[in-house]
Batch of 2 targets.
Target 1
Amino acid sequence: MPIGLIALALGGFGIGLTEFVIMGLLPEVAADFQVSEATAGWLISGYALAVVVGALLLTAAVTRFERKPVLAVLMVLFIAGNLVSAIAPDYALMMTGRIIAALAHGAFFGIGAVVAASMVAPTKKAGAIAIMFTGLTAANVLGVPFGTMLGQAAGWRSTFWAITGIGVLALVGILTLVPRTGAGEVAAGGLRGELRAFRSGQVWLSILVTILGYGGMFGAFTYIAYTLTEVTGFSASTVPWLLILFGVGLFIGNTVGGKAADRNVDRTLLVALSALVVVLVAFAFTSGSQPMTIASMVLLGGFGFATVPGLQMRVMKYATTAPALASGANIGAFNVGNALGAWLGGVTITAGLGYTSPIWAGAGITLLGLGVMAFAAAAAKKRHDGGAPASVVGDDVDSQHEGVELQRA
């Protein structure tokens, strides 16, 4: 395993911690700034929206530059955002710090996935991406619970100081361990070259699968605390430990999903999405049982995150001439899925359908994602069997022609 992947994973750990640890510290933050919990909740929503903006605009702005220095600059931006959050004297500056850190999120994972894949042999690319995303899963398994405990014991600002320190370590790792990319690895044609990747129908289908598949899992997960306490009957003090089980599932799913995607991306995604639908339906039916709920939590995280390396790899596969912006856009799509799932789950609860309704909503969204994935896989196989090159399967004729021209440039 290239040691540079560890530096990328450490950066992913810090970014994941920044995104999710605030959920456990909202009461302390709201009390400190004297705002309502709903207002404090915008520190989560604002972050997610900024991730989407950064994934598209910031990635587009840096496509012409060498990727290693770009990753280093993004990590500096991340450090600055968390430093601002740590010292923020009021809510407005705290939100500013969150937005600054979030802008680095999408671009870092989008460009980092391309760099991670470039470090290994073609047959191990999805596995390399999975290693980078291990940092994100570790943030859920270990970082969030311990970050929450640190914030509760020493003040919420201490958590953001700790995240700032993690960012510094990741920056040093990137500068010393990640190899430099040659000029040939920078997208031909700059921004125009990157944008041409979006003429591929398969890129758009992959992004749609990301929104629906990940949105289904997150729709069920967003309101999981209410399901666990109000339906299953767990005490509130048990919820953090159950969330660790969910994180363990994320870790296992990410690792296994990455290895499986290296063998066959489409088959891995079809199996994982199918299994995720089954798990969500079973969870909705058995949420009154504590043993079954515990099993569902692990499986939900496992099959939900087993799709992530494959989804990222699939977008990059069909954007072969210019993968960086497409990769960043897919990171944004994960956050669009988060917002979609959370919104639809909230709608079902507001409609009085109960605290299992977000799980049913998640199952429905994931089923749609499975349908799109089945269509995309069938279209890709049809084009491949018809003799189209594997790297442009599913593209229209113009996209194929322009891809050839880009490769010649």
Target 2
Amino acid sequence: MAADETAADKTATDATATDGTASDGIRATAHGTAPTALSVLDLVTVGSGRTATDALRTSVDLARLTESRGFHRYWVAEHHSMPGVASSSPAVILAHLAAHTDRIRLGSGGVMLPNHAPLVIAEQFGTLEALAPGRIDLGLGRAPGTDGATAAALRRTATLHEGADDFPEQLAELTRFLDDDFPDGHRYRRIHAVPGPVQATSPGGVQSRHRPPIWLLGSSGFSARLAGLLGLPFAFAHHFSAQNTVPALDLYRESFRPSEVLSEPYALIGVSVLAADDEREARRQVLATGLNMVRLRTGRPGLFPSPEEAEAHAFSELEREFVDSWTANIVHGTADEVRTGLDDLYKRTGADELMLTSHAHRGELRLRSYELVADAYGLPAA
């Protein structure tokens, strides 16, 4: 062992399979009878009559439950200016979840890179890696995760297109900060993201050089192609862009070039799922999801409505068409119905991982949804 190789480095080396593919922190293993690995996407849903504190407590309970049942990773998505979504600060939430879990991978699904300075993200996720070594993922998107006015406030600019257009350059800068490898002569050569690799190369340093793997997220072809060209793992937002799922996955696989990160493509898809003990309750919760999206799409975001609010709402014809279209892509019903829906989706897409996101007015219904899915696939008992 080299003098500067730490125990953490040795552990990572020992975990590598003979084909060099096992220790990348990316690939996952299916459990039970699930067709592929299952993971979790959490928007920290806040229902009407409930608080952000309630929602965050549910997230802790959900992370613990899914860890105990063999789900592979747990991601939190960045959103802003939405009363019903308490996940504006993924890094803060992930630090809290890290303190309440032991094994499940934790990450962002994603951080919207154009909203932030790359150095800040490198520092935040370097800190998370120090808190939960070997368990952190860094998923990145280029959308604002909010409306245009809020994005302008976040970015302190009115020219929002520049942030998205510069995404490849921002990604390259972030990667350099994470690896601490700006070339000589670069204006950032003497700037270091801490915690980070610079602590391994400093006199007396014993810090592991491991850093969180980067994922690219998307709902169209841009990130799919970029992830493929860079040889990075790709996460597609099937839950709100279902019509683009297969084309985007095809583009990713066709564009893929082997890299130091991956020798072959690896793609997961986000899937909206609601399993309930009876089909009627699942339909009621899904209708509430539809009303929530109507409000969001018409510029009136609010707390996540109850099923009673949704049933009492007088949907216009256009709203009803939108709700029918939106909810058609939510895999919902009894546990058996959800299992069948997920199996069919896997067959259509060949996704390497299914990341389930469940929305319901009450936290206990979200917990129950994941529990039912785990039972349906015979995942390890809690």
